[in-house]
Automatic annotation (TrEMBL):
Any single biological process term in GO: glycerol catabolic process
Gene3D superfamilies in UniProt: 1.25.40.340, Dihydroxyacetone kinase, domain 1 (3.40.50.10440), Dihydroxyacetone kinase, domain 2 (3.30.1180.20)
Active-site annotation: 220 (tele-hemiaminal-histidine intermediate)
Species, as recorded: Polioptila caerulea (Blue-grey gnatcatcher)
Binding residue positions for substrate: 55-58, 108, 113
Its EC number(s): 2.7.1.28, 2.7.1.29, 4.6.1.15
Highest taxon listed in the record's lineage: Eukaryota
Catalysed reactions, as listed in the record: FAD = riboflavin cyclic-4',5'-phosphate + AMP + H(+); dihydroxyacetone + ATP = dihydroxyacetone phosphate + ADP + H(+); D-glyceraldehyde + ATP = D-glyceraldehyde 3-phosphate + ADP + H(+)
Official protein name in the record: Triokinase/FMN cyclase
Domain DhaL, chain residue ranges per copy: 371-570
DhaK domain segment(s): 8-335
Free-text function comment from the UniProt entry: Catalyzes both the phosphorylation of dihydroxyacetone and of glyceraldehyde, and the splitting of ribonucleoside diphosphate-X compounds among which FAD is the best substrate. Represses IFIH1-mediated cellular antiviral response.
Keyword Transferase: yes
């Protein structure tokens, strides 16, 4: 049985509605019934009331569509079960007593829903209520027309919206019924699923192989029209639209170039939102290529089938009036808050900002000899390339095993950069340029951390290159790494080696210091600190998610930093 937070089906429909009402001040439960009504019920006096409903398990349908400008109320059944006649009748009476000028029941085309809503309608009429019923069948799955007719699925939500906007504008029951019937005749929906769904406490209703998907499933897990191998999103969407609009399919939707549609891309409950966005883009592209104008697109979870990993596409052919009704304001919580405007993949992009021109290199001539710098950088690069496998091995215990690759990438990038242009003479510009190279080419967190370190260090070297300036630069770089990286000395990161070296470099601030001796001491301190990380517990970085007993090796970042410093000194 699939894992769920709800282990039994009994009571879950009531609990779900109670949760929705608790979180939404615009909703109220009808005492003794599984019925949700608008909290401002007196506002419907003199207007047409709209009631809908069906089995639970399709959330946010239908209670999410109760609100001003949409439904007046809904009647919910248990999971995947029609609501009772008694509850439907109680809902009709509640809105009739609130002074509704006629009541329209919007029902999805399933035998149980038609029977229960129909029975309640007959009883309400006998009591003198003016009640009508519209049955929505928008499913385009079945090629031969079955006796049961087309199933009512996600397109029903668009019917709620159109009817709700008309009722809010004061339209009569006759007008609403006529316009809603006309809209439902030019609408089609088709589902596609990668997985079954399961009622809490039960096994899935069917199985799909790892590499299979099913076209035309119902929203209760009923069989579709065909199974096929899993296709990528754009091909899957093409297959769906082809089936929906195929003239040989008795339940097809006629779509001619130049038509205007509202597109609904509906998550059947278990598809990731990432995939849903990709499907939506593919659907817009596919329709545009056929010469269809997409007046509006709604993307989200509108009518689900519990946790089914799938998607349905709904197309409603629209004229200007229907678009206005879709755009009309509603307080229903599950209706998306979208801007009125056409849908296209050809939107103009915001132009990229213009980078400020670089300051002229006014600091040339001071600083270390370029040949020496080139030699040092070449040593650093070959050291890192030689250590690639060792660093990867150290990283496997604590991270994703790519520390060596990342540092090797940096070494290659620095080599290419040195070959491509003369090196800046001023230390500040040299470090800034190195920061740019690493940020662009190194990748990983290390690239950003080195970039931060070098950028901040470069600031300290602006216009100076005396020994104390290098101590300041080291401190500034470490401070920037700590500020954004969140690590501190002792957290078993590259910072441990850097920090140890920086402490030793503080001696550069004394006038009598011998820079080479200080550098040698700094390298020794860095190497000792890197080795000491072997016994530390990781406090930051990816390794901090791993139990310390499994980290018997020194930290690869700390080892790399110590090696870089060693190469500089050689």
């Amino acid at each position: 049985v699939p894992k769920k937070l709800v282990t039994t089906v009994s009571g879950c429909a009531d609990d779900a509605l109670a949760g929705l009402v608790a979180c939404n001040p615009g909703l109220r439960l009808l005492q003794g019934h599984r019925v949700v009504l608008r909290s401002d019920l007196p506002a419907i006096r003199g207007r047409v009331a709209l009631l809908s409903g069906g089995g639970s398990g399709h959330e946010p349908a239908h209670a999410g569509y109760v609100g001003k400008g949409m439904l007046t109320g809904v009647v919910a059944g248990a999971v995947f079960a029609s609501p009772s006649v008694g509850s439907v009748l109680a809902a009709i009476r509640a809105v009739a007593q609130a002074g509704a000028a006629g009541i329209l029941l919007i029902v999805k085309n399933y035998t149980g829903d038609r029977l229960n809503f129909g029975m309640a309608l007959e009883r309400a009429r006998a009591e003198g209520a003016d009640v009508r019923m519209v049955v929505v069948g928008d499913d385009c799955a079945f090629t031969p027309p079955g006796k049961a007719g087309r199933r009512g699925i996600c397109g029903t939500v668009l019917i709620h919206k159109v009817a709700g906007a008309l009722a809010e504008a004061g339209a009569s029951l006759d007008e609403i019924e006529k316009k809603v019937m006309a809209a439902s005749k030019v609408m089609g929906t088709l589902g596609l699923s990668l997985s079954p769904c399961s009622i809490p406490g039960s096994k899935p209703s069917f199985q799909l192989a790892e590499d299979e998907m099913e076209l035309g499933l119902g929203i209760h897990g009923e069989a579709g029209v065909r199974r096929m191998k899993v296709l990528p999103a754009d091909k899957a969407v093409e297959t769906m639209l082809k089936h929906m609009t195929d003239p040989s399919n008795a339940s097809h939707l006629s779509l001619t170039p130049g038509s205007s549609v509202v597109l609904m891309v509906n998550n059947l409950g278990g598809l990731s939102c990432l995939e849903l966005g990709i499907v939506a883009g593919a659907a817009v592209r596919c329709l545009e290529n056929r010469g269809i104008r997409i007046a509006r697109a709604l993307v989200g979870s509108f009518m689900t089938a519990l946790e089914m990993a799938g998607v349905s596409l709904t197309l409603l052919l629209v004229d200007e009036e229907l678009v206005r009704l879709i755009d009309a304001k509603t307080t229903a919580m599950a209706w998306p808050n979208i801007l009125a405007g056409p849908v296209t993949t050809r939107r103009e992009e915001v132009p990229a900002p213009i980078e400020a021109p670089r300051k002229p290199q006014d600091e040339t001539g001071i600083g270390p000899g370029t040949v020496r710098v080139q030699r040092v950088l070449e040593r650093v690069c070959s050291t890192l390339l030689d250590m690639q496998d060792k660093l990867n091995e150290l990283d496997r215990g604590a991270g994703d095993g790519d520390c060596g690759h990342t540092h090797a990438r940096a070494a290659q990038a620095i080599r290419e950069w040195m070959c491509s242009r003369p090196l800046p003479a001023a230390p500040a510009q040299l470090l800034s340029a190195l920061a740019d190279v690493l940020l662009e080419q190194m990748g990983g967190s290390s690239g950003v951390l080195y970039g931060l370190f070098l950028t901040a260090a470069a600031q300290s070297l602006r216009g100076r290159s005396d020994s104390p300036a290098w101590a300041d630069a080291m401190d500034a770089g470490i401070e920037a790494m700590q500020r954004y990286g969140g690590a501190a000395p002792g957290d078993r990161t590259m910072l441990d080696s850097l920090f140890a070296a920086a402490q030793a470099l503080h001696s550069l601030r004394s006038p009598s210091a011998d820079p080479l001796q200080v550098l040698a001491a700094a390298v020794q301190s860095a190497e000792a600190a890197a080795e000491a990380t072997r016994h530390m517990e990781a406090g930051a970085g990816r390794a901090s998610y791993i139990r310390s007993s499994r980290l018997e090796q020194p930290d690869p970042g700390a080892v790399a930093v110590a090696a870089v410093l060693g190469a500089v000194l050689e």
